[in-house]
Amino acid sequence: MTTITHLLYLHGFRSSPQSTKARHLAQLFRDRWPQVQWWCPQLPPSPAQAAALIDEGTRDWPSQTLAVVGSSLGGFYATWLAEQRGCRAVLINPAVDPARDLARHIGEQAQWHEPGQTFFFQPHYVQELRALQMGPLRRPRHYLALLATGDEVLDWREMRERYKASVLKIIEGSDHALSDFEQHLPLALRFLGLSPL
Questions:
Q1: Residue ranges of the domains in the chain?
Q2: Burial level of 8, CB count in 10 A (0-12/13-18/19+)?
Q3: pLDDT over threshold 60, residue 93
Q4: 158 contacts: CB under 8 Å, gap ≥ 6
Q5: How far is CA 56 from the centre of its chain?
Q6: 3-state secondary structure of 192
Q7: Which of 179, 96, 195 is CA-nearest to residue 145?
Q8: What gap in Å lies between CA 180 and CA 161, rounded to an integer?
Q9: Is the full-model pTM beyond 0.85?
Q10: Which DSSP state fits 42?
Q11: Could you give the 3-state DSSP secondary structure of residue 129?
Q12: How much is the pLDDT for 1?
């Protein structure tokens, strides 16, 4: 398996590059694989703008050695990118139908890591999410999906069905944030062609 040269991390709804998983991965790559280009952007609330930012920021990245890690809504965006670029993706409790799920969250939202910072989730963002929805996966084995049965936000069974032909790791218990993420890092790193910890 080809070792990655570029890694993109995409956070979830209301999250940020300050998430525990993002900061842990950033530090790990600085320490162990400084040659890998790392990028974890703050995604705008608008899905169309988020997609444009991701596309523009990775346009010059080589698809064969690019990989993306996405959590929750970031997993949905990661699937969108991986389907277009043919790259590998590690998905952490990925959102399967965020247009349906986030329609209930229209209005002002607080950032998870900075509650004083708010944004407004606009009604038309739901349609923008629908526009990014991918059909059946063209390269299902390019995905590793880490799914927690204890996810309190999304239904892990729906995720399992969506990624049933992919590399699946069903995690008993845990939670939506996958608080025990570090335990599953060796598997994710091997999937990315990197030597495990």
A1: 6-191
A2: buried
A3: yes
A4: 96, 97
A5: 17
A6: coil
A7: 96
A8: 23
A9: yes
A10: P
A11: helix
A12: 64
Read off the tokens for 130.
């629908």
Question: What pLDDT sits at residue 175?
Answer: 82
Dist CA 71 CA 13 (whole Å): 9
Distance of CA 30 to the CA centre of its chain: 20
CATH code, residues 6-191: 3.40.50.1820
Query: Cβ(149)–Cβ(171) under 8 Å?
Result: yes
Asked if residue 129 lies in contact with residue 47, where contact means CB atoms within 8 angstroms, the answer is yes
pLDDT digits (tens, 9 = 90+) for 165-192: 999 999 999 988 889 999 999 999 999 9
Place of tokens 């390269």: 139
**All residues at 6 or more sequence positions from 175 whose CB lies less than 8 Å from its CB, including other chains:** 148, 150, 151, 152
Sole residue written with tokens 């963002």? 125
